[in-house]
Write a structure and sequence with these properties.
CATH architecture of the largest domain: 3-Layer(aba) Sandwich
Number of helices: 10
Strand content: 15-25%
Low-confidence stretches: none
Shape: globular
CATH superfamily of the largest domain: NAD(P)-binding Rossmann-like Domain
CATH topology of the largest domain: Rossmann fold
Oligomer: single chain
Strand order of the largest sheet: 2-1-3-5-6-4
Structural class: alpha/beta
Length: about 280
Amino acid sequence: MSHPDQFLLAGVMGWPVMHSRSPMLHNYWFEQHKLAGRYLPLAIEPGKLGPALRSLAPLGFSGCNLTIPHKEKALEIVDEIAPTAKKMGAISCVTVRKDSTLLGSNNDGYGYIHALLDAFPGWKADAGPIVVIGSGGGARAVTMILSERGAKEIRLFNRTLTRSQTLQRDFGGPITALPWDERHNGLEGAALVVNTTSQGMVGQGNLDLKLDKLPKTAIVSDIVYIPKETPLLAAARARGNRTVNGLGMLLHQARPAWEAWFGISPKVTPEMRAMIEATL
């Protein structure tokens, strides 16, 4: 899609937001596609999301991404919610439509699954039991997409059992909420482990998960991308497991946003990945 005589605008709203690598990757695509435009970090305080989102259309923005703490609050503000975002209970992407109304969608599950397939093209969701750690927004995105891809068994562990039971009740299917103190033994026979918590992120404590029972054939993934190798991934790699970090999820979730905003399907290239990895 051509955009003659138009300076394209998009951004990411969060609080804080300056740590985000999203501007780097989106601005890379602007340059790659030779488009006049900019993707901006937008520091929006809690409580000010409504006016900020409503300002997108008059300011000429095509849309924005949302990060902590705005993903749930946006559900009350946008004019229409896509089915996936409604089911997840969170919005990661807002698109300004031609009539200036706002459409909220969620690309997190798309980002996760395409990152996994990018790293391991032959991976299948029904290869064996899957262990998911956490029950927040990341867990909802991951468990939903894994279920849709044909997972037969998803073992869900969270410190607060009631939260994981709520997720199980909301999504059903192959998801089973299990007590936190069973997480170590719960790795037995698993084909995939996914950490969806912030544990292991810079400034956070490490995830308390012993990998002794995990098969060496299992893949271990983390949605955290700062640092690019969390202590969980380092421990998994040291014992011979294949690993994938959260950077691919960040990169791939941006692709459907560009399709919605600009009508362009950008590619995640090794050069772009290397550029962002160099900053982590």
